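Q: Got one fold?
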Amino acid sequence: MGTTLGDAGVNIANFQLGREKESGNAIALLYVDELVSQDVLDKLTAHHAIKQAKPLVFNVD
């Protein structure tokens, strides 16, 4: 993930990792400084270990 995002010029500001249960599926939440293009999301999901990649936007005022 880091290499793919870095090659696209996307800076990872924060990274959280968790899983649903022991030996279960993992979830990674990456906080980035700019929007990630669909092309980069497609490159991420092309990896066999990544099932889904989608942007989440939180508007915090």
Observations:
- The beta strands are 12-19, 26-32.
